[in-house]
Specification:
The protein is mostly helical and about 180 residues long.
Length: about 180
């Protein structure tokens, strides 16, 4: 079983490397590879532990700031708004759900991850980020429930970080095609 998991991790790393090589914005291959490595690490940790570590979210945010400084200085305000808005949207959703249901549904790490990705994508990329994250998470739950014949309820914990990470990766690589300037 451990060998299968290691093989899966290796395939994820290969997929990140190949997709970065093929689709990274011009002049941003190294930053894109670093982003991908952090996103894969965050996704794996959240999948296994339901925790998105603050230091890794901070690294992703710092890489986003570096990307803006090197490649998007003219649009720095859009990226800053994206970072703040990404964080606040999921923070608001977390607090609203806690108020309505009296339980925690999203962790603060999800909001921090969305904020870090907002720095990379700018505010214009956030609707697509949240749409793809929600759709891929829902699809994964439906497939998993069907394959495993497992019942999911409103109390079943589901890691959302992997789907935010996947969505961020897709939006970063395909965003210029999907959302032309």
């Amino acid at each position: 079983m451990r060998a299968a998991i290691l093989l899966l991790y290796a395939l994820l790393a290969l997929a990140v490397a190949v997709s970065a090589w093929l689709f990274a914005p011009p002049g941003m291959l190294i930053l894109t590879l670093a982003m991908g490595a952090v996103l894969v690490t965050l996704a794996i940790i959240d999948w296994r532990t339901f925790i998105l570590p603050d230091p890794l979210n901070a690294v992703l945010a710092a890489l986003g700031v570096l990307m803006v400084w090197q490649h998007a200085r003219a649009d720095w305000l859009d990226h800053l708004i994206g970072g703040v808005a990404g964080y606040l949207v999921l923070l608001g959703l977390e607090l609203f759900y806690r108020h309505v249901r009296g339980i925690d549904a999203l962790g603060r790490g999800d909001a921090k991850l969305a904020g870090a990705l907002g720095l990379w994508l700018a505010w214009q990329g956030l609707p697509l980020l949240f749409l793809i994250a929600a759709a891929s998470g829902l699809l994964a739950v439906l497939v998993y429930a069907g394959l495993m014949r497992r019942q999911f309820t409103t109390d079943t914990p589901i890691a959302f970080g992997p789907w935010i990470a996947l969505s961020g990766w897709i939006c970063w690589l395909a965003g210029p095609v999907i959302l032309p300037a």
